Amino acid sequence: MVQWPDGARCAVTLTFDFDAETNWLARDPANARRPGTLSQGTYGARVGVPRILDLLRHEGLPATFFVPGWVAEERTERVEAILAAGHEIGHHGYLHRWVDPDRPDEEVEEMERGLAALKSRLGVKPSGYRSPAGEVSPNLIRLLVENGFLYDSSLMDSIEPYHHVMPDGAQGPVELPWHWSLDDAPYLFFSLKTPKPILTNEHILSIWQAEFRAIHEQGALFNLVMHPQGIGRPSRLAMLRDFIAFTRTFEGVWYASAQQVAAHWRAAVPYDPADGRINPFIAERVPNP
After folding, report:
1. How far apart are CA 68 and CA 45, in angstroms?
2. What pLDDT does 26 receive?
3. 84-123 burial, b for 16+ CB within 10 Å, e for fewer?
4. Mean pLDDT confidence for 27-48
5. Hey, where are the domains in the chain?
6. Summary mean pLDDT of the chain
7. Which of 105, 122, 132, 133 places its Cα 20 to 30 Å from the Cα of 97?
8. Quick one: which H or E segment has residue 222?
9. How far is it, in rounded angstroms, from Cα 60 to Cα 54?
10. CB atoms within 10 A of CB 161
11. How confident is the model over 203-224, as a mean pLDDT?
């Protein structure tokens, strides 16, 4: 079992991918001419973020917001409000483009433009990164090392943090795993081009509660991923308040930013490059049929 600070049983990170309009622009460039589609992201910036900040302030909880560079440039005031409230800002690409391992130049561009925007508009040098849609490549992990990132939160191969191992055996960033079941997007996002059911609060809450109960029992990391354009809807925020209240009925819950969890893990858990569990890129070593 993980040794969390002050004898805590498990860690909880409340994370928000503040994509705004980039979620729709990156999916289909033609959406730039579809204000109705884009308005879902606009809602996240205009309404969702302020209400999320109010909820976090009321609950007295820290959070991490992963922000694309475009959002830092176009929705600067909202991201400044996140910083003013004391929350962490992480890197989330520039225009929320999905990583394509066959196009490493695009990975570099997304990384560098995102970093430049966070620095120029906010004065932020992020310590953490989350890839759009959880798509990652070995090249991307190398870019994280080169740019001095403490952690990544893009992969789904564990319920505990772990150390990345670089090809030369050097220590890479700490990974803070997540999972689609703990992401609001599969339950709440909708578009006419990719229609799918929008699920009830009761359905979502039952999954989150069951996952939290099991992760708490195992003493691991509960990494909740949310989007202001989804969780920021009125009834969905009420669901989040209910979920937080549920977690408070358990003993030994450490609510922390992603940076705090990664820093604790790196300091508390020795790095062992021989631990074969911690290289998620085993497919690289599998020959093509």
Report:
1. 13
2. 77
3. ebebbbbbbbbbbbebeeeebeebeebbebbbebbeebbe
4. 84
5. 11-270
6. 91
7. 122
8. strand 221-226
9. 10
10. 25
11. 98
Residue with tokens 């040794």: 3
**277 confidence band (pLDDT: 50, 70, 90):** low
Predicted TM-score of the model (pTM): 0.93
Written as one letter, the residue type at 8 is A
Buried/exposed code over 3-35 (b: 16+ C-beta within 10 A; e: otherwise): ebeeebbbbbbbbbbbbbbbbbbbbeeebeeee
Domain 11-270 has CATH 3.20.20.370: yes
Contact 149, 111 (CB under 8 A): no
Which residue did the predictor score with more confidence, 163 or 24?
Answer: 163
Alpha helices in 47-103 (DSSP H): 49-59, 69-74, 76-84
31 close to 37: Cβ distance less than 8 angstroms: yes
Length of the chain as a residue count: 289
The residues, any chain, with a CB within 8 Å of residue 45's CB and separated by 6 or more, are 18, 20, 21, 71, 75, 78, 228
More confident residue, 112 or 34: 112
CA angle 242, 244, 248 (to 5 degrees): 115
Of residues 156, 23, 16, the one with CA closest to residue 97: 23
